[in-house]
Amino acid sequence: MGKVVLVTGVARQLVGRFVRRVMRDPGVDRVIGVDAVAPGHPLGGAAFVRADIRQPVIGRLLAEYGVDTVVHMDVTATKPVGGGRTAVKETNVIGTMQLLGACQKCPTVRRLVVRSSTSVYGSAPRDPAVFTETTPPKSLPSGGFAKDVTEVEGYVRGFARRRPDVAVCVLRFANILGPEADSPLAEYFSLPVLPTVLGHDPRLQFVHEDDVLDVLRIASSEPRGGSLNSGTFNVAGDGVLTLSQCARRLGRPTVPVLLPAVTWVGTALRTVGVTDFSPEQIRLLTHGRVVSTVQMRETLGFTPAYTTAEAFADFARHRGPGLLPPEVLAAAVDGVAARLGDGVAGRVAGARGAGRHGTGSAG
Description:
single chain, 363 residues, 44% helix
């Protein structure tokens, strides 16, 4: 890792953990944490500078401290306290533009790591079964966080062309879960009853918070032998879970409703401030999304410690029990499925018996 590291978005718990980990690296001389609000957690001795990355002050910080490594984590779907969607978009897009402009002018910058998301692929009914880093989305995101990260990645590609001497790494994280997860999807899974789209059981992937810290450490350091940490990489745990499996493991009942009603429910939830049930999240919970992690393993040289199922299990343990114990809910669902199966089998057997009886009579 570089001698002087600047990290944005340090007011968030996960980013604060990353800063504390970097501070323990013997090869790092100084870490500067930047955010528009003061963090409510320790930064392990890192210098905190209260600054808005949408303002030109970020350029002065890079020059003043001689920063050689920038880890841009201030790209998020979570609304700030007292802020709305407009504030999130401005920080994600305008803030990134300002930061990249400052990095372009700063000769000491040699490495840039940018947090992105698998949301760039969108969620559509005719999506491929698995997205790779080069798979284009079926339709470009029309709004929300997905559009933000799409624009952010476009600006990062432009920066990489203008500063080919800077090693640029873009990490497309699947939905991040863990004990301290604060994403819109984590809020959704914390609802006592989960609204779902009738007739759909999407496949989902997750990445554990601890794995996020580990891959950030690899991306922001000099590449190890046989690996390359410049480029764009999907980051997710092995395997997938369906939404129905998630609900059973949480012990939370689901309420399947028609798609227009789900949109109305999302609007109602946002109105009362329960969760950010955005249109892009509704699409995810309708069609799902699965990405390939071959490049993460073979090129970046990173293997997650948690599978998708293990990351979700750790999240579920820290969220507390749902309305129904998971084992009771699973047994009830399995029982209903078995009875439905027996009923279908009985009807098939009855139809076959009636057919044989009819044939015998005719003979």
